[in-house]
Specification:
single chain; mainly alpha; 2 helices; rod-shaped
């Protein structure tokens, strides 16, 4: 009995590899999908803001009525 080696059935080894390998493969696939997003160029802007739409600050106009009220 001392010299005998008990071998694990091939089916059990295959199931063990599937049990570990399938979730690992799914996780690596998700990692690659999300990592690719970091290295893609951003999409073009759908609507650009024209520089003329931003109003420049103006100084208040002095009126004669405002200067007479001292």
């Amino acid at each position: 009995m001392e010299g005998q080696v008990k071998k694990t059935p091939v089916v059990l080894v295959a199931l063990a590899w599937l049990f570990v390998g399938l979730p690992w493969t799914w996780g690596v696939t998700q990692l690659w999908k999300n990592a690719r997003k970091l290295f893609q160029t951003p999409p073009a802007a759908t609507q650009s803001v024209a520089p003329s739409t931003v109003a420049a600050p103006t100084a208040p106009a002095s009126t004669p009525a405002a200067s007479n009220n001292k």
